[in-house]
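Bug report

Summary: structure tokens for Protein-serine/threonine kinase differ between web form and batch submission.
Environment: batch mode, default settings.
Steps: 1) Submit the sequence below via batch. 2) Compare with the web form result.

Sequence submitted:
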Amino acid sequence: MLMTRISRRTLAEQHIALTRTFMKDLESGKNEENFSFDREHPDVLDNRPLIVGKVHTKCQIAQVIQKCTSQVQSIFEERYSLKHNNSPKVIIDGDTTANLMCLADHIEYIIFEVLKNSMKYTIASVLEKNGGLYRNLEDLKFNPIHVTISQTKTTLSIRISDRGGGISPEVYKQLWNYCSEHKLKYLLNFNKIKQMEAKVADNISLSLGFGLPMSKVYAKYWGGDIKVYSTPEFGVDAYITLPRLGNVVENPAMEDYTL
């Protein structure tokens, strides 16, 4: 069901975006003569646009991570009344020039959710060690979150590592479930959704409990995956793998139970 809905929405948004671009170019007088050709490879356009409809042909993943980092840091700085840049640092290393063909919105959702969880529990673990108080949060030292990027000719990999205390075995067993014993408390938050504005930065404490499972759905839709490895009482390593070339057949027919 989820895969089918994502597929329909993706097709609809791509069609609308391409139509708007076509009409805009038509009104401005653009045509095929605006494109130059490579003499050695006449079938390849020299100045192909980086964004075609909703598809980014060379999405710089480090820039996406930086954008998501800024959003997540702003959320938690507001939540805990932290000064700017006093939230846990995110260190990006590895192949920072890596790129892939993708729908940037979907990739941003995945990275945002994983980073949000890492930062949430990085802060929570420090608060727990200090008696749960955060009046003097400015004086607390947070371990940085490390994001490592690597790529092959066909695959891009992202590892997000934190020292937020890890995941207990009981919770880990239910990690990819939308509704479980651990997540029952989040169901009560559905009644509060109408009180929220439709923006990602609203009320970080109002969790619905399906950010990580939905991220896995998006990754699998594009032929990738997310795997999470926990070291209890220490931290978590989340591995995101995605195809780079945009030539992997989507998985709209995959049932949710395969998660």
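Above is the batch result. After comparison, the two runs are identical; trailing whitespace caused the diff. The longest strand covers residues 235-243. The chain has a mean pLDDT of 81.
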